[in-house]
Amino acid sequence: MAKMTPTDIALHQTSRILELTWPDGEVHNLPVEYLRVYSPSAEVRGHGPGQEVLQLGKQDVNIKAIEPVGHYAIKLVFDDNHDSGLYDWGLLRELGEDYDEYWADYLARCEEAGHKREEMTSFSTVQTYKPD
Q1: Concatenated DSSP letters for 52-107?
Q2: What is the residue-level pLDDT of the chain in tens, covering all 132 positions?
Q3: Within 10 Å of residue 32's Cβ, how many Cβ atoms?
Q4: pTM given for the model
Q5: Which residues of 108-118 are buried (b: 16+ CB within 10 A; e: fewer)?
Q6: What phi and psi, each to the nearest 5 degrees, are found at residue 74?
Q7: What fold characterizes domain 8-117?
Q8: How far is CA 106 from CA 43, 51, 73, 79, 102, in A?
Q9: Nearest-5° Cα angle at 123, 120 to 125
Q10: Burial code of 65-104, b = ≥16 C-beta within 10 A, e = fewer?
Q11: For residue 15, how many other CB atoms are within 10 A of its CB?
Q12: Phi/psi of residue 28, each to 5°?
């Protein structure tokens, strides 16, 4: 399948959800915590297999800016100062389609590490970004 560009991207800061609408009608609502812990940055993924760093304590993280990167990606600037991962359209689609599997894997890894996730607090406002 060819990589699609989302037709709309909306950040719901109160619920900490990044909503992606795709040209085929698919809509993905991705929690900010999920996007942060699956950042494509070297800080999270490492520089090779086995070098991944489990991200803990990111339940309250939010996105403070969405920056376009050419016509192929966005840079998410998180309020914990993480801003080094570029989320291309293919990765965002994959994160949406495989959410259940990836999130279950993350929760299992947290449990294995002995980490208990705390409940999230709330913020307000909505930001939208329209890809070209």
Answers
A1: -----S-TT--EEEEEEETTTEEEEEETTS----EEEHHHHHHHHHTHHHHHHHHH
A2: 457 999 999 999 999 999 999 999 999 999 999 999 999 998 898 887 878 899 999 999 999 999 999 999 999 999 999 999 899 999 999 999 999 999 999 999 999 999 887 654 444 444 545 565
A3: 24
A4: 0.86
A5: eebeeeeeeee
A6: -130, 155
A7: NE0471 N-terminal domain-like (3.30.2020)
A8: 16, 15, 24, 21, 6
A9: 145
A10: ebeeeeeebbebebeeebbebbbebebbbebbeebeebbe
A11: 15
A12: -115, 130
Q: List, as one string, the DSSP characters of 5-62.
A: PPSEEEEETTTTEEEEE-TTS-EEEEEHHHHHHT--SHHHH-SSTT------S-TT--
Q: Which residue, among 30, 94, 93, has the nearest Cα to 63 in the 3D structure?
A: 30
Largest Cα–Cα separation, the chain: 43
Q: CA-based angle 70:73:77, to the nearest 5? A: 105
